[in-house]
Amino acid sequence: MQRSLKDYLIISFKGLAMGAADAVPGVSGGTIAFISGIYEELITTISNVNASLFKTLFNKGIKAFWQQVNGNFLLALLSGIIISFVSFMRLAKYLLEHHPVLIWSFFFGLIVASIYFVGKQITKWNLTSIIALIVGTGIAFYISKLPFLGTNDNPWFLFLAGAIAICAMILPGISGSFILIILGAYKTLSDAIHDIDIKKIIIFGTGAVIGLLSFSHVLKWLFKHYHNVTLALLTGFIFGSLNKVWPWKNTLTWHTNSKGIKTPLLQESISPFSFNGDNHILLAIILMVLGFLTIFILERLGSKK
Which of 5, 55, 142, 147 stands the most exposed, by the fewest C-beta atoms within 10 Å? Predict the structure, then answer.
């Protein structure tokens, strides 16, 4: 596929949006990739990473290797994702601690729009697609209700967490960061990035790469053989995740770490008018609309040939 410099800048912009989404527990970068029109190319590109690539490298040289691996696409996208994820994680942490209603309002609007844009790509609805939609919704809703585990920084656990979370990150509707929180690895990774702990970052990254290469083959096969059913399942994932990003929450239990810092452990969604504190109802609605429009813009960019 021939692309111009402008095309690769747009792909990097989509990567920035994916990284920002993945940094927020409850929002999936896979949703952004799907809406912006690069999801299936991303899955196909990742699944094509195999032993034949190295054969191409030794026999035909770097140029042929780079073309086979879709290197320009990956470089543009990953640059955006990494820059955004690392820089936005601190901002996301601050916003979640000090302005949770506002940040969740923006992402709630974003996910509502995602349901529409992903769902409309299903070309044929039948009983199997409807069942897949219901199953996907149930799985995502169940995950959103799971209590969080305590922090764990064991190397093998961090490796496994990386493999599991990266699979969630490329699934629309399932948040990789939220999976890390449930597993108890989010703070460990966040601290490792903040402190530039190379060892922990490499362990997590290795697990993520292995998980990604394995899971991408499954997704590629599903899209090839069960396209509409897979889309219905992914739409269900996104729909079920709305509970996690509902802006107004009541905290049922708290977790207190060794430094005395309290973080929510188990929460339930409530009406904004039952919220204990300033519900920011007007500003929340404005941010929901902005989140919806963000997806609308990304979808327009993704639909351009």
Answer: 5
